Amino acid sequence: MSSPNCSSPAKDSKQIMSTPAKISLRNVHKAFGTKKVLQGVDLDVAAGSSVAIIGGSGTGKSVTLKCILGLLTPDQGSIVIDGLDMTTASRSDHEAMLAKTGMLFQGAALFDSLSVWENVAFGLIEGKGMKPKLARDLAIARLADVGLDADVANLSPASLSGGMQKRVGLARAIATEPEILFFDEPTTGIDPIMGDVINDLIVKCTRELGASAVTITHDMASARKIADRVAMLYQGKIIWDGPVSEIDQTDNPYLQQFVAGDIEGPLDLDLKHL
Predict the structure, then answer these.
(1) What is the rounded average pLDDT of the residues 7-20?
(2) Band of the pLDDT at 262, cuts 50, 70, 90?
(3) What is the dihedral of CA 1, 268, 254, 23, to 10 degrees?
(4) CATH code 3.40.50.300 for 1-92+227-274
(5) Which of 199, 251, 207, 234 is nearest to 1 (CA)?
(6) Which of 153, 128, 127, 151 is nearest to 139 (CA)?
């Protein structure tokens, strides 16, 4: 098994960041039985910045995201959001944190029993207690933000293409004007052209909100367009963390192999499960 050279670890995110961290992970560990998935993840997301966590399948990207969201509890370490350690926070503090986040799920995850506008307005009505008429107006405005006309508002999500469903999912994610946005493999399941449209919309919406963003992806084109910084996760740790502009100049052989998409290299690939 090839292990990253510990003498050349991820760049110190404290040196990269010039503004206080909105989200800060320190020494985060998570195992499932004997399988160690996260083995000391350190990561900072500055307020208003966009960070993409990249890595191959099974490297722990989704587990990291679930730990940040509180869907999984780390075995060790801290996850601090707005100065509060969520690993020891109360349920009410968790709910308050989630109330200021938006999420675009990998498969859009729309409710088939609700119309398009009801999906977009779900957090406004259920979370903020907004009246349906006002929520519908705001939902239609958010649909316009992602390039969808008002005539789709009453349609069923099942009648939409995959790309349109992604846009509805994005409209829902931004509807409550969140401070933090999470994107889970945003271009999976759609063609490259629509993927680029989604990437552009994510950049536009994140900037207009002034939100902090965390994206998990294996799509380097998406990571380059969406993110200010990229952090590569491998064997349970962040092994490279730096600005997007420095990706192609890196001398890190693990990142070089991943970006190039080469089979040959230091990455320990489980080809039986690819």
Answers:
(1) 48
(2) confident
(3) -100
(4) yes
(5) 234
(6) 153
Burial class (CB in 10 A: 0-12, 13-18, 19+), 33: exposed
How big is the chain by its Cα radius of gyration, in Å?
19
**Other C-beta atoms lying within 10 Å of the C-beta of residue 82:** 18
| 146-166 confidence digits (pLDDT tens) | 999 999 999 999 999 988 999
Provide the total of helices (H) and of strands (E) in the chain, helices listed first.
10, 10
Distances (CA, A) of 273 to 58, 116, 165, 264, 270: 10, 37, 29, 17, 6
Indicate the pLDDT class of residue 273, thresholds 50, 70 and 90: very low
| Residue 77, both tokens | 């370490």
Q: Where are the beta strands (DSSP E) in the chain?
A: 21-32, 35-46, 50-54, 76-81, 84-85, 101-104, 180-184, 212-217, 229-234, 237-243
Q: Which amino acid is at 123?
A: G
Question: Has residue 12 got a pLDDT over 50?
Answer: no
